[in-house]
């Protein structure tokens, strides 16, 4: 209980400790609500939904083709990890790039871009509304910055999402993971998943 005594706000110790304990423990069941239905267009101009990835392990990365350094570095890392995972464990991963700059990232632009990284990399774009909806479902932050004429950058979350064969969220990997950490982390999650499902 909280209350005022002599003009001083009094907070019970129990309230503070129980609140911080519940924050630390987090929800005891269920997964993070990340992911969900989407309706986008791939780099060949074909409509794509999350259902097109059912039955496959997928890693999703949000970025933009005019990104000067971070996106190319992350996609290079993802491409290397995809090859390494197949080499060491035989597991096929579908790498997916979703644009957070739909105004500039046309189907053609995205098509040219994904070619630079991996032959299996799927690039997705769509209308600003669809991108906003998809980014929200994946809890991705993005915002235009430094507008000078038509030249601007997009500040965005730098995260890769590992999605299971039902396109349900398994784990995210941040920028601090190198190729080996990403490779090992994804293999470990998939093995664990298969063990649980067995």
UniProtKB/TrEMBL annotation:
Record keywords: Copper, Disulfide bond, Metal-binding
Disulfide bonds: 67-71
UniProt superkingdom: Eukaryota
CDD domains noted in UniProt: SCO
Segments forming domain Thioredoxin: 27-192
Signal peptide stretch: none
Binding site for Cu cation: 67, 71, 156
Gene3D superfamilies noted in UniProt: Glutaredoxin (3.40.30.10)
Family statement drawn from the similarity comment of this UniProt entry: Belongs to the SCO1/2 family.
Protein name: Thioredoxin domain-containing protein
Source organism (scientific name): Solanum stoloniferum
The organism's taxonomic lineage, starting at the top: Eukaryota, Viridiplantae, Streptophyta, Embryophyta, Tracheophyta
């Amino acid at each position: 209980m909280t209350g005022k005594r002599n003009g001083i706000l009094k907070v019970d110790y129990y309230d503070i400790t129980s609140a911080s304990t519940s924050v630390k423990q987090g929800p005891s069941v269920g997964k993070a609500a990340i992911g969900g239905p989407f309706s986008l267009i791939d780099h060949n101009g074909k409509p794509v939904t999350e259902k097109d990835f059912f039955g496959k392990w997928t890693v999703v990365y949000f970025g933009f083709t005019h990104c000067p350094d971070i996106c190319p570095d992350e996609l290079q890392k993802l491409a290397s990890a995809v090859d390494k995972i197949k080499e060491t464990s035989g597991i096929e991963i579908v790498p997916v790039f979703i644009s957070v700059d739909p105004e500039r990232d046309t189907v053609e632009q995205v098509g040219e871009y994904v070619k630079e990284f991996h032959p299996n990399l799927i690039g997705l774009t769509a209308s600003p509304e669809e991108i906003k909806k998809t980014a929200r479902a994946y809890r991705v932050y993005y915002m235009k910055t430094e507008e000078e004429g038509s030249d601007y950058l997009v500040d965005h979350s730098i995260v890769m999402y590992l999605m299971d064969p039902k396109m349900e969220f398994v784990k995210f990997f941040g920028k601090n993971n190198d190729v080996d950490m990403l490779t090992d982390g994804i293999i470990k999650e998939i093995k664990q998943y298969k063990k649980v499902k067995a």
